[in-house]
Design brief:
Glyco_hydro/deAcase_b/a-brl; disordered N terminus; TIM Barrel; binds zinc ion; alpha/beta; 8 helices
């Protein structure tokens, strides 16, 4: 074999190996890189008619997330709460009817939170440890009632603005601003958010970040425990 032919063969082999490596990384992003940090993906207002599609997308892209369910929907759709858990998600409390809690008295706040704890647990979602007040609105009374139910209040570091009509591109870009430990607000019902899931996963993998759980102790995203 002439030297030029050996060189051509070597070049072809190296190219083939590089192509194979790239193909493997694309097929299994969750195994492509170590996790240099964790972020908390959160989806509010479910479960809904969109939940099954969202869970499929998250699972297909190797992502786990925290689902802040409304108690009224958990009570109406217990099988979807179980599906969230089966898909590896964590289930949090997002009040029962999504009121402006800061405009309610202590007894009504307690009712919103305690009925949701019961609805989620009754559906098989476990007793939530995380609470997100609707609209992120809180005060001392809301905090104290949540604490009395063993709940840690979780707001967010990054707002995807999916509730405000953000495009899929904008939602992907918002997720791209997350740093280690931070939490992003998204919604169960948003079609643009559903469409963004594969690109969110790709972006996190490219930055060495993984989707983690939210620690009830620190309120920050950590490795799933
Ligand atoms: Zn909400």
């Amino acid at each position: 074999m002439a030297a030029t032919h050996r060189l051509a063969l070597l070049t072809a082999l190296v190219t083939a190996a590089a192509t194979l490596t790239a193909a493997t990384a694309t097929a299994a992003p969750e195994r492509a890189a170590a996790c240099n940090g964790y972020v908390g993906l959160t989806f509010d207002d479910g479960p809904s008619g969109n939940t099954t599609r969202l869970l499929d997308a998250l699972r297909q892209n190797g992502l786990r997330a925290t689902m802040f369910n409304q108690g009224q929907y958990a009570a109406a759709n217990p099988s979807l709460v179980r599906a969230q858990v089966s898909a590896g998600m964590w289930v949090g409390n997002h009040s029962y009817t999504h009121p402006h809690l800061t405009q309610l008295g202590q007894a009504q706040i307690d009712s919103e939170i305690s009925r949701t704890q019961q609805a989620v647990a009754g559906a098989g979602g476990g007793t939530p440890k995380l609470f997100r007040p609707p609209y992120g609105e809180t005060n001392a009374t809301v905090k104290s009632v949540a604490a009395r139910h063993g709940l840690t209040e979780i707001i967010w570091h990054v707002d995807s603005q999916d509730w405000n009509g953000a495009s899929t591109d904008a939602i992907v870009q918002a997720a791209g601003r997350l740093t280690n430990g931070q939490i992003i607000l998204m919604h169960d019902w948003s079609a643009n958010t559903l469409a963004a899931v594969p690109r969110i996963a790709q972006g996190l993998t490219a930055r060495g970040l993984c989707a983690g759980m939210i620690s009830p102790q620190t309120g920050r995203a950590v490795a799933p425990g």
